[in-house]
């Protein structure tokens, strides 16, 4: 196997669950969760580690339905103000926007291509040269690799340990109890951002079931923090904390009142408050004195692309947010409504390929009301007219649905019912959509929303990073 960065990305992409596999699991109702942690521990053993090895990373573990990525970004930025007392801060988040390397950051920067490639193939070779007990793990031969997210989780631990990281922040992928990041035995603190209904076929259909999963990251000896939740979710989180002998603290937003936040949106105060509590607990555990000025500076300097981000380009102002759940669409459309210039032409650029797209777009329409969009564009998440950027290849959506523009046509039909006055366009890819917007006359405010995959591809196109 050749060993360039492109080869690493191609090998990684081969580990994605394809659309057919995901649909089969969804329809079968088979719960593969029971083996999730034993398998993850076994993969860890095969790359030369025990889960206790990760304790030296001093990990803050964060879950939630919305706001968990922003919470991690705020936390990292606050702790970054304490360097050199903290030497190297690792940050593991998902999904990525433009490059997969964004998922594994050190001191705020995605790891370099050469480092990613080096460590990627070290993990690959260790897995290829080891075996598992055939009776216990019959499906884990040396020719089998963990799936995409699990592989990246293993890679992140390997990178952080080898690069001398002494504080790490881990964002859960999905849920908590059975998530591959839940190898973490002794976090310094755990956090749960706002809960909502998402990933139901993996986590359950009720807030209680989802809260049970999220509470799986609570660990004895580490304080847990959460924001105010709906009663059903809060009750279960409290039960989980009690079951694990963990102190659960519900935080309010008083400690960030009046402070400037680097990520816009009124709802970010909740995430920032959670981050302050997590950072303070972490610093206390490390024996570092808390400095409120450093907290203030960290919150102000936080940058998290694709979340309530504004980019000005000639006569166009792009308002970009990766909201993709009902709750986050509410927050995001509220942000756009207050941030847009009501005198300008307004355009919506939207996609959501897998979730209930029609419900989300209806929610968005209601959220910006009484403002209207003059034009609405529905696109796929394909980056360029020639296909996907290599870091954005997605095998877990139906190729047929993408090629036939099935979802986009259904969205257009839905929008006509909401507002028949809007000019509606359907485009095959993001590049074509952006070119169309750039061809419009006059000053334009464009709301790019519905999916982090759309936002990532959009940012690649805006940068003109064509391979």
Topology:
Layout: H1 5-13, H2 19-28, H3 36-46, E1 59-63, H4 68-80, E2 89-92, E3 104-106, E4 109-110, H5 113-128, H6 148-162, E5 167-171, E6 189-192, H7 200-203, H8 207-214, E7 223-226, H9 231-243, E8 248-250, H10 268-286, H11 292-301, E9 309-313, E10 316-321, H12 326-339, E11 345-350, H13 357-368, E12 375-379, H14 399-403, H15 406-418, E13 423-427, H16 430-438, E14 444-449, H17 452-463
Parallel strand pairs: 1-5, 1-6, 2-5, 6-7, 7-8, 10-14, 11-12, 11-14, 12-13
Antiparallel strand pairs: 2-3, 3-4, 9-10
Helix pairs in contact: 4-10, 4-11, 5-6, 8-9, 12-13, 13-15
Features:
467 residues, alpha/beta, UDP-N-acetylmuramoyl-L-alanine:D-glutamate ligase, Protein-Tyrosine Phosphatase, Chain A, 2 domains, eight-stranded mixed sheet, six-stranded mixed sheet, 41% helix, globular
Overall number of strands: 14
* Poorly predicted parts: none
Mean pLDDT: 91
- Cα Rg: 22 Å
Biggest β-sheet: strands ordered side by side in the sheet: 4-3-2-5-1-6-7-8
CATH class bucket of the largest domain:
Alpha Beta
Name the CATH architecture of the largest domain: 3-Layer(aba) Sandwich
GO molecular function, one term: ATP binding
Keywords: ATP-binding, Cytoplasm, Ligase, Magnesium, Membrane, Metal-binding, Mitochondrion, Mitochondrion inner membrane, Nucleotide-binding, One-carbon metabolism
Binding site for ATP: 307, 321
Catalytic activity: (6S)-5,6,7,8-tetrahydrofolyl-(gamma-L-Glu)(n) + L-glutamate + ATP = (6S)-5,6,7,8-tetrahydrofolyl-(gamma-L-Glu)(n+1) + ADP + phosphate + H(+)
